[in-house]
Amino acid sequence: MSLPHFHATPLRRLPLTALLSLAFAGASQAQSLVDIYEMAKGYDATYQSAKAQYDANLAKADQGKAALLPTVGLNAEVTRADREITYSPTSGGTKVPDYYYTSQTSGLKAVQPLYRPANLATYRQSQKGLELATAALSQAEQDLIVRVSQAYFDMLTAQDNLTFVQAQKAAVAEQLASAKRNFEVGTATITDTREAQARFDLVTAQEIAADNDLRVKSVALELLVGKAGLKPQRIQTGAVLPPVDGQGVDSWIAQSEQAHPAIQLARVGLDVAKLETEKAVAGHKPTVDLTLEYGNMKNINATTVGPNPGVDQKITSGSAKVTFTLPLYAGNSTQNRIRETTALEEKARMDLEGAQRQVTQATRTAYLGLQSGLGQVKAYEAAEASSQVALDANKLGYQVGVRINIDVLNSQSQLYQTKRDLAKARYDVLVGQLKLRQAAGVLKAEDLQPINALLAP
């Protein structure tokens, strides 16, 4: 069987741009921060677990309504009876023959609570579950945003470290070659060559460590999204960091006290604890229920005596009643339950106080860390320019003989270390902005857009 023939343009006839397009057609495209976040949102086990818990809490909240609604039950029963009557010989009565019959019974019963304070408290607790579910899911989403952003910029930092180390290695190799040439012509000592060789070996070790660190950071990011071969987009050259909200730390703390999910969870926990105390107190209160019943009973071949022997009997009945119950004594269980719930209510109050203190501290720490990071970026930018000038001066001094080789090597090391520190400081500021919003409890997925705009497409 012959294969079908396809008419195609030979590759040698295609222009260079088309060949490059074909060469890179199968290559994976670089992903932005928002792209990776969306992938992580659909894969991360921690977030998916929180989302499943959110759905469960919604269903649990609806269960609380059942305590206020009526309960309806249907029952049916079939009975086969065999009747035998034995008379004493001295009774003088007439013997009734033995007989049997079948009884069929069916009924419908409905109970509607009219006054049950414990049931009302249970319903109110279930509605608080909606608030708990929302706050917990919000907390999980904010945590995912920060984890993805941190892993994203950790990988970029590792890439920069490797790039700078390789650039430093190339510069040291050039300096090593220069020292060897100068030694051969007698304008430098063997010390210059050995110093350059020692620095080259050190940078080679640093390159190996940087390459391994990049692999580790890549695995960490891949673990969040479940996809290998990720290529995070880099920050555009000359990109200006987005401005930080100019409000002071007190304004951020005020926001956190109102919006932070941890405080919301603790506040709702206190409300639930108070309602639990109400349920315990309800153990001393009466309950009132309305009960409606309707029944049908049929006896087949009910009897062999009476005016109509052997005739089927059918009885239909209905009833409505109101039941009032007042607890009098339950072995002190109600009193002990009240003491228990009161103590748990105090615990929930202290948990709320602790959550507020922790959030306040975290917000203040994030704010100060961000301000420090912004200051470091400015300082590293100035240090980078100064280090470049110092390196150029040392190179010129080495050429004219007023500087030695180690001075040039040290200047190179300082320059590339400053470049690495500056790049990391810029990434830390971007993540720090997200962490500050997380500490205040106002972080949303939309907050990734300003950062995403800085990335090179």
What does this protein structure show overall?
The chain has 457 residues and is an alpha+beta fold. It folds into 2 domains: 30-69 and 116-284 and 345-452, Outer membrane efflux proteins (OEP) (Up-down Bundle); 70-115 and 286-326, Outer membrane efflux proteins (OEP) (Single Sheet), CATH 2.20.200. Helices cover 61% and strands 12% of the residues. It is built from 10 helices and 4 strands. It has a 4-stranded antiparallel sheet, with no helix packed on it. Helix 4 packs antiparallel against helix 9 (405-440). The longest helix has 69 residues, at 117-185. Residues 1-27 have low confidence and may be disordered.
Q: For this entry, what is the oligomeric state of its chains?
A: single chain
Mean pLDDT: 85
Model regions low in confidence, pLDDT < 50 over at least 5 residues: 1-27
Q: Strand tally, please?
A: 4
**What coarse outline follows from CA principal-axis ratios?**
elongated
Structural class: alpha+beta
The percentage of residues in β strands lies in 5-15%
Q: Quickly name the level 1 CATH class of the largest domain.
A: Mainly Alpha
Instruction: Name the CATH homologous superfamily of the largest domain.
Output: Outer membrane efflux proteins (OEP)
CATH-defined architecture of the largest domain: Up-down Bundle
CATH topology of the largest domain: Outer membrane efflux proteins (OEP)
Largest sheet: 4 strands, antiparallel
